[in-house]
Amino acid sequence: xxxxxxxxxxxxxxxxxxxxxxxxxxxxxxxxxxxxxxxxxxxxxxxxxxxxxxxxxxxxxxxxxxxxxxxxxxxxxxxxxxxxxxxxxxxxxxxxxxxxxxxxxxxxxxxxxxxxxxxxxxxxxxxxxxxxxxxxxxxxxxxxxxxxxxxxxxxxxxxxxxxxxxxxxxxxxxxxxxxxxxxxxxxxxxxxxxxxxxxxxxxxxxxxxxxxxxxxxxxxxxxxxxxxxxxx
Length: 232
Prior knowledge:
Elements: H1 5-11, H2 22-37, H3 42-54, H4 58-69, H5 71-79, H6 81-87, E1 106-111, E2 116-121, H7 130-133, H8 143-149, H9 153-159, E3 169-174, E4 179-184, H10 196-202, H11 205-209
Parallel strand pairs: 1-4, 2-3
Helix pairs in contact: 4-5, 4-10, 5-6
């Protein structure tokens, strides 16, 4: 029986990703060059990658919870945020033991008030306070979010399900290579008498970026109330 070449070709498995981004090409090239030059080994890179993947927003949530309960710690967090970070187990200068030079940076905590709401973005690329918030969510790195938030912040926040009153001033803070930010939201109603552990549970990653507000009983980062992005 003749071999059916066309049939075999039709069954050929296609790659899961047809193309990779410019950032991914740059990362691969830079990583391989650093390994070749002896700056770090492939094993060290794997070790750091595993470390980075397991970082979450827990330290930042703990910091906010402590600030809600302790006025002195709140003042420390706003005036000396790197010192306050150490109180929740994060040393920005040595987060892994072998250093992450891209994170040798200035860090600032933006405190919301009843009339001022902060939200962070990196309009140029995807700068993010990784040592204390972990890896950024995928949507934070997209051009859709980066370009539109600085122009139409209320509309973008509404797409996350966050509708702010007209008398609340929305301030968009643009991160950069050497200056990172996180948001300290206002403590929500219905949390009187709560412990630090209880408060930390409702400070989600999205609250720390500024696209959500903490609410009693809401302890997940999954966005449940969204609507499609629309051009004004």
